[in-house]
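Subject: Sanity check before I submit

Could someone independently write out the structure tokens for this chain? I want to compare against mine line by line before I put it in a report. The sequence has 436 residues.
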Amino acid sequence: MFRYYLGLGFRSLRRNPVLTVLMVLTLSVGVAASMTTLTLLHGMSGDPIPGKSDRLFVPRLDNAPADNPPNDGEPATQVTHTDAMALWEQGKGKRRTPIYGLAPAIDSGRADLPPFFSEGVAVGADFFPMFDVPFLYGQAWSAAEDAKAASVVVIGRGLSERVFGEGVDPVGKTVRISDADYSIVGVVDTWNPVPKFYRLIGNNQYGTSEDVFIPFRTAIARELQMNGSIDCSASAEPGFKGIVASECVWMSYWVELESAADRQEYADYLNAYVNEQKALGRFPRPLNNRLHNVMEWLDFNEVVSDDTRTSTWLAFGFLLVCLVNTVGLLLAKFSARPGEIGVRRALGATRRDVFTQYLTEAGVIGLVGAAVGVGLTFAALAFIRGFDDDIALITRVDGLMLTTAIVLSVAASLLAGLLPTWRACQVVPAMQLKSQ
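---
Independent answer below. Compare away.
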């Protein structure tokens, strides 16, 4: 019987085309507005590394001068080179890595491809297994190469295809980066965590991953200039070496623990480390450390702004207005058919049968509205990408969002159809037959 009612629902779309078009457009515009903002919110607030986000932590240490504390009482968002190296070399945690951004020049050695700048990071070998970075060719450098500041590099798939050609394995070949030759040991496959949680400070939070990964000690030894944010609470000696030796904070440090339950133990370790440094004349302020897991780190950096949340609620408010209008249009559509309802009731149809039939018709309108609404959502997201290509990764409609759009549209149409359907069920057969 449901299939029969479904067929009636699709045939009824042609009965009053003007009302049908108005209902579909009203519903689809509301769905498109809410799904566009919901897609952006979903992309911004999703877990970028599910299954691991509660075991990955970024520490923050308060090395501000005693006479110049931060206004908000919060420690710096990054750490000094001194602290990053100390935490890294002490080896606490399952895996760990310092990170700082680079913008190296790439010389392909080809006459048809002049030198160009690329995005890169200086990291430890643990970076790749820590963040589940996939490899297309080769692998990460070894711990021994990490320790001796070897001239090796891991490059991204995009850079590999640009310099060496698509489908070519460049492992073992040499690439010139910032006036030095590096041996390629691996090629990272397409990898774009959204948001870019491991480089939120001084970087595009929704950009694609880097194309150059250089061993941290190698980058420091060759004085590869940082590309990112730097905060100096005290003056530093001039030059790269001065920054390295200073109390300036300019890099991130990440650690992976065996389990989330090890968090307090690691926090105690950080306190002990700072107390040791206090004995050496550093960290003049009281203990003020922080330890964030991935999702806490996203919240702290306000990856999802209040404006985004407000826009989402406003869009759903607009959908509610569209529902109210759809209710009025459905009332007009169903109220024009009392004679048909009277005949059906006289022939033995129950109120439940009438209710099911007309609610199914409302659901059909929701299905058509979902199709149009999804199309409008894609168009709206493409329009947004036209303003800012950097947010392309969060404007993609995945399977979850597509399913949500369909369910939302059908549910909205069924909700809007409840009152008109109930009104249709109140038709008295005898009165309608007498008037015919």
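---
OP: Matches mine. For the report I'm noting this point. The two ends are 28 Å apart (CA to CA).
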